[in-house]
């Protein structure tokens, strides 16, 4: 069994060694331009079209959770991957815990008014502020998938009122579920902290715009953990400057790296990280990929592949 590996930044030698240990008998090689030798499986992140085009693979594994970049490449180059070849992505594999850490720490930061205390500190002012009440701090999670579920679970443990919005209704204890465009306004109307964990699809691009932000509770907060293209950054800044939004924390941006002249850098109520909310954890990713390959090799059905038409 032959595997080809391509990642623009990962240490290929380390991955090849770990994969060969996890899949005894497998031969893993780093794919380089011009390599047209046969392979059974491909493990990729931002792969060149040439790597996959025309190959008879048993499956492709994306080395991350989001498959938007590979699907957009596929749309432009349909010959890149035959529709019969299953595409898998990383489902949690350690990213859920990272998203929990990020979301819990930021929601608590806003809830305990550490942003306000930081601003007071900058002015050398000693001033206790009124506490916020949990019942006024409903957290709304857009995108109730693998990562949204983990984030909901962790915030529930901290006692925040929780709601989620997704395509289909969820039956999660303690979480009010809203489904479909027709329930989006109702979802937003009681949301004080909006957490985005949607996939990037044609239906979700630009979804966090002025009209959506206007429907949130006053003094709302936005935490974008998914993709930059979900947020209209001009509208976000307008909502911050107009007083509708009290703060935003962004991990992802419409252009990455964020250009030096973006007004987001300087905004006092925007906190930022450089797309690190949840990174691929190699041991967990390799365990998932090797177990899935072993099942495919045994001819077992494997659920959870990417639906290319749906886009995630
Ligand atoms: N910032 C970072 O470091 C990372 C960001 N991500 C992003 O997080 C996203 C979510 O990951 P998972 O939870 O694993 O995805 P998932 O596929 O398990 O969940 C997606 C959820 O979004 C909902 N959804 C999709 N389209 C919708 C629509 N049009 N309207 C309403 N709901 C819709 C689905 O119903 C589902 O509940 C990834 O696609 C990726 O872009 C993932 C990992 C790291
Ligand atoms: O896995 C993903 O989709 C990521 O964004 C990793 O940073």
UniProtKB/TrEMBL annotation:
It is an enzyme of class 1 (oxidoreductase). Residues 105-277 form the D-isomer specific 2-hydroxyacid dehydrogenase NAD-binding domain. It comes from the Bacteria. One of its GO terms (cellular component) is cytosol. It is found in: Cytoplasm. Keywords: Cytoplasm, NAD, NADP, Oxidoreductase. GO terms for molecular function: glyoxylate reductase (NADPH) activity; hydroxypyruvate reductase [NAD(P)H] activity; NAD binding. NCBIfam families: PRK15469.1 (NF012013). PANTHER family: 2-HACID_DH_C DOMAIN-CONTAINING PROTEIN, D-ISOMER SPECIFIC 2-HYDROXYACID DEHYDROGENASE NAD-BINDING DOMAIN-CONTAINING PROTEIN. This is Glyoxylate/hydroxypyruvate reductase A. It comes from Intestinirhabdus alba. The gene is ghrA.
């Amino acid at each position: 069994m032959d595997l080809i590996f391509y990642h623009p930044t990962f240490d290929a030698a380390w991955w090849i060694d770990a994969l060969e240990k996890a899949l005894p008998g497998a031969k893993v090689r780093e794919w380089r331009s011009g390599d047209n030798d046969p392979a059974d499986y491909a493990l990729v992140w931002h792969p060149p079209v040439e790597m996959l085009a025309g190959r008879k693979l048993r499956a492709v594994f994306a080395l991350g959770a989001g498959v938007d970049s590979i699907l957009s490449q596929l749309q432009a180059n349909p010959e890149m991957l035959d529709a019969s070849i299953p595409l898998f992505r990383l489902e949690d594999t350690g990213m859920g815990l990272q998203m929990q850490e990020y979301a819990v720490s930021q929601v608590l930061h806003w809830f305990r008014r550490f942003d306000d205390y930081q601003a007071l500190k900058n002015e050398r002012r000693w001033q206790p502020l009124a506490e916020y009440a949990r019942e006024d701090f409903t957290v709304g999670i857009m995108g109730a998938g693998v990562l949204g579920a983990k984030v909901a679970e962790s915030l529930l443990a901290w006692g925040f009122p929780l709601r989620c919005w997704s395509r289909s209704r969820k039956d999660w204890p303690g979480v009010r579920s809203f489904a479909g465009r027709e329930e989006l306004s109702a979802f937003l109307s009681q949301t004080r902290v909006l957490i985005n964990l949607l996939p990037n699809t044609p239906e979700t691009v630009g979804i966090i715009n002025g009209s959506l932000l206007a429907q949130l509770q006053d003094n709302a907060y936005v935490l974008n953990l998914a993709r930059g293209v979900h947020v209209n950054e001009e509208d976000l800044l307008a909502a911050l400057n107009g007083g509708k939004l009290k703060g935003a924390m962004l991990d992802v941006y419409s252009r990455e790296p964020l250009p030096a002249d973006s007004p987001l850098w300087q905004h006092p109520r925007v906190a930022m990280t450089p797309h690190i909310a949840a990174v691929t954890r190699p041991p967990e990713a390799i365990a998932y990929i090797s177990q899935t390959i072993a099942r495919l090799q045994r001819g077992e059905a494997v659920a959870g592949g990417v639906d290319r038409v749906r886009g995630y």
